[in-house]
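so ive been stuck on this for like two days lol. basically i have the seq below and the ligand is flavin mononucleotide, smiles is in there too. i just want the complex predicted, nothing fancy, no docking runs or whatever. if the output looks off dont worry ill sanity check it later, just need somthing to start from for the group meeting slides
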Amino acid sequence: MTTNRKMRLGLLSRNTGAHIASWLSPETQASAAGDLSYYIKMVQTAERGKFDFFFETDSPGIATDNMVTWSRNGFRHTKFEPLTLLSVLSASTTHLGLGGTMSTTFNEPYNVARAFASLDLITGGRGGWNVVTTANDYAARNFGLDKLPPHDERYERAYEFVEVVRKLWDTYEDDAFIWNRETSQYIDPDKFHPLEHDGKFFKVHGAIASMRSPQGQPVIFQAGASNAGRDFAAATADVVFGSARDLTKAQALYKDIKTRMLKFGRDPDDLKLLPGLSMVLADSAEEAEQRYQALQDLVHPDVMRQTLQEDLEMNLRDFPLDEPIPEDKLPEKANQHEAYFNYLTNLIRTEKPTLRQLFHHWSNRGRNVFCGTPKQAADLMEQFFTSEAADGFMISFQTMPQQLDLFVDTVIPDLQRRGLFRTEYEGKTLRENLGLKRPKNSYLK
Ligand SMILES: Cc1cc2nc3c(=O)[nH]c(=O)nc-3n(C[C@H](O)[C@H](O)[C@H](O)COP(=O)(O)O)c2cc1C
């Protein structure tokens, strides 16, 4: 490992903040999710802090039942479609990468390939696609199904999906567009490669109308936590979002993903693993803890039950808050977020928490919330980064946007002083800034 290795930082938006009750905090703008100017400010702050990229999550479905409970949730009800949003945000930034989610279960490869190829051109090579298989039945119901297809089948489809998308991105070679007025040739036909794909899930005989972008192909993000998900990430991803809970677990995940890459013939340096790190920053650790506790106290009991029942895939609607969750009522196996489900059911069996205790532990979905000073945040990041646990971090804040400003004004300069983070962007494209190779067109020998 070289000594000038630099940390990579992504910003996870979640408008008012990552905490489920952040929209209730007087520090946030409750209406932020529908306010473009709010997003523009956020990405400009991220770029001032030299973040590698801004990242927008998504799911193609929202709850339609149990609305008394869902009506209290600030994450679900309105959201800009990621590619539309990212295209607009590219006009207000010059170097920041712009990544967004699109599902492989509820799209066709052609649509995704075309949309991200356009995003990558519009942004001058700053686009990224977060490949997800989608884990909720509400999405299934928008697409003619009652339930999600089984977990492993979703991943099987995802492999083929990504293969087809990548091939479509290579429709034209880099120098296919010659615009030769003398010979009256717009493109060189020898450098055009229509796809002939006949697979288990997709038959695609065609091409997309899109030249390659300055970074060749958009960056591929992935966040699978299950066995199938980790293999998929190791086989296909440029950037992987981890959800490690402590240093030892983060090191184990880092080693696991980088080792899995070898079986797919990939160089471990070609993938950047970024564990999630969600924060509450304050002048003292005690104050940060208090701020976090104040947020926890804002959570409505209905929301506690709803959050847990979604990941446990069981009904907790009338369940008392201060009694342990009965083990004999737990479903046998997950069909949605396998890693979340396994973690929670194991905890219920071993530690027998009450519903309220389990919620307080899980309100950030198992990713520890860091509460502390800017210096302590930089210490923690340095420790993970220098002990083979992380190539950088997916940063989120429990409340936004002041916490992002504070991070950019305090933690970033500290990391720069320590020589761990860039002071200027290295390049123009997201791949250049992440230190990833530009992919060769697969039709070239
Ligand atoms: C930082 C991060 C961002 C994620 N963004 C999304 C998203 O936008 N949409 C989605 O459906 N899932 C998202 N996920 C969930 C993952 O895609 C994946 O389903 C989850 O980690 C469980 O892994 P598994 O599917 O292998 O069981 C995200 C996960 C992480 C850690």
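The radius of gyration is 22 Å. The pocket of flavin mononucleotide is lined by residues 12, 57-59, 101, 130, 132-135, 223-226, 229, 241, 243, 276, 337-339, 394 (CB under 6 Å).
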